User: What shape does this take?
Amino acid sequence: MLLFDKPLELSSNDALQKIRRLFQAEKAGHTGTLDPLATGLLPVCFGEATKFSNALLDADKSYTALLRLGQTTATGDAEGEIIAEHPVRFTRAELALVLARFRGEIEQLPPMYSALKHQGKPLYEYIREGITIERQTRTIMIHDLQLNYLSGCEMEISVHCSKGTYIRTLAEDIGAALGCGAHLIALRRTKIAHFNLSHGYSLLQLAQMTAAERDDCVLPLVSLMPAMPRLALDDIQVMRMAQGQRLGLATGLPDGKLALYGPDGFVGTGLQTGRRIAPVRLVSGVAKLAADRLARPDGVLNPDNETAPGPLLAA
Assistant: This one.
């Protein structure tokens, strides 16, 4: 996985294709779309890592956002036409009270100009046809919201939030609460889960590197799940998990997602419920590696390994 610093005016998909060609990767995917007017951290997964990218899609994220106060636009950002203007009149004390209202668990209405789907179709396609879809508010978590600076009609904030948070909508809601309106004019994603933009690479930096130097920028697949409890499996258990079977083991680990490791290293993720360990997603080819190591030249399993360490539960 590569921590990529997406530049301005480049869509997430265009950025992905540039990175894929630069690394000559057959398979690649990004984790979490950034609008063309947004910059910052866009993790790009290669090969097998694309199977495990959901670990980042569901993660908390951090942003630095620049707001233009006194103006609202049709889209909530600088791409839309200005639809209203109001004088900017509030004190620092009033601003502090408003920001405090948006910390913690809040309700947010997803914008029409978004990729959120209704009946399989993105909302932005409906609004382009002049159709407004009724949306339901969603509960999100703003873990932290801080004022970086306020200068005239511009205000910069830092936001640490849960997945599904629309910063454009947050900007609009803050402006409405201040009584002057606001829209987003710049956005930079600085963190996803445990990954920080300070460890990211720009397109220019990568283009100036040799192939070997670029390869050194790629993180191992296991970096996607550092907080996950680890469970060691032997070859027979790996083979059974690859066949979709569940294992019955007393692991001593809490219920939930587990990072599974075989003799060759990371093999995938599993879900533990009591003594039941079910496969969730496995790396391709792990069953063959396990079988090759277990098999004798005549194809018979090594007698020392024919019995699994724990009982097997029906899948």
